[in-house]
Amino acid sequence: xxxxxxxxxxxxxxxxxxxxxxxxxxxxxxxxxxxxxxxxxxxxxxxxxxxxxxxxxxxxxxxxxxxxxxxxxxxxxxxxxxxxxxxxxxxxxxxxxxxxxxxxxxxxxxxxxxxxxxxxxxxxxxxxxxxxxxxxxxxxxxxxxxxxxxxxxxxxxxxxxxxxxxxxxxxxxxxxxxxxxxxx
Length: 184
Description:
The protein has 184 residues and is α/β, with parallel strands linked by helices. The chain is built from eight helices and six strands. It has helices at 49-55, 59-62, 68-79, 89-102, 115-122, 131-138, 147-165, 170-176, and strands at residues 4-11, 19-28, 31-39, 83-86, 111-114, 182-183. β4, α4 and β5 (111-114) form a beta-alpha-beta unit. The protein is globular, with a radius of gyration of 16 Å.
């Protein structure tokens, strides 16, 4: 199995370049082998009040943190050549794409799939596919809208489904549900 990395961004506002935190979880042989979390200083100090209510972060929490381009050399080795996954992955892929473009960062091609779509395909009987609902279904304790917790929950979804379906490869799990692996 090639290395897979669960990712999650939290943003300060509606701008796709306003990431204020980033979490990632490395998954190898369906085991979490590494977890990382960064607070990020967005390009502007504006935090939308409803976003603060969601994730609890404010400008004062991140104003002394590095900007995304300052941590890219730490983050990029985890992402390049890995199969990425996230819940509602289009959002996180869009934020990552926007940040890479905004800061003109060098990068290799990245691919990803969506654990929201995977969950919907696998557990059709559930009434909600939000991460907190899936955590409850799986019996996991969970703090929603913390970037590391969200990334870890995505990894837990992949691990549980691989075990339930007895697959030994993440790409095979994605194919089992006719989902697409997309390019970033």
